[in-house]
Design goal:
Length: 198
């Protein structure tokens, strides 16, 4: 497995997941939850989110086989999800996040704020193009970054400000939009060559 490690693939997977998770853009939500519940369990939230993403990376494919859907078709569906998330980030539309909870660790921070439907779909979609070890490394790097952000959310909000956060969100939205188009075209070409014979 480690022979398939690629720094380029790891960095790409890390950036894709970073853009989808959008933990920087979620800082105002995290700060609000901290004020509401008093304390955020950064370690617990980060570990659970990481486990959810890694588990779905492997279990998700088995679920697809069970229902008779190939990885390329799912990747195209994932590309549409990423495309919509990117549009929401660029246009400044709030992605629906459930904050009605009595806990500020697993729910709603680990799920659905970090490891939400978009993140899990993206994780499995990446598997159509990248090796598992590179995606896992990307997940681990994002989990570490999420932990650091959760630990220092108040400080980051004071330093960055709303304007900077909005600019970052739009920049990552554009990157995500380009990645979703690439993911769609690559997997559509694969499906086309598989099912259409001349």
């Amino acid at each position: 497995m480690f022979e398939a490690f690629s720094l380029k693939e790891t960095l790409t997977a890390t950036m894709v997941l970073f853009a989808v998770i959008d933990i920087v853009g979620s800082i105002p939500i995290i700060v609000g939850l901290k004020k509401k519940f008093g304390k955020i369990e950064a370690e617990r939230a980060s570990i659970v989110a990481g486990i959810l993403m890694i588990a779905f990376l492997f279990i998700g494919n088995k679920i697809l086989k069970l229902i008779g859907v190939d990885v390329n078709s799912f990747a195209i569906a994932g590309a549409f999800v990423i495309f919509i998330i990117a549009l929401e980030m660029i246009l400044g539309i709030e992605i629906q996040k459930n904050t009605e909870s009595k806990s500020a660790s697993i729910v709603p921070i680990a799920f659905p704020l970090i490891a939400g439907a978009g993140t899990l779909t993206t994780t499995l979609s990446l598997r159509a193009e990248y090796h598992d070890i590179n995606i896992i490394c990307g997940i681990i790097l994002n989990t570490i970054f999420v932990y650091l952000v959760l630990r220092s959310s108040n400080w980051l909000e004071r330093k960055l400000g709303d304007g900077t956060l909005q600019v970052l969100q739009k920049v990552f939205g554009i990157i995500l939009l380009a990645i979703s188009i690439k993911l769609f075209t690559a997997n559509f070409a694969q499906l086309f060559s598989t099912y259409v014979k001349f």
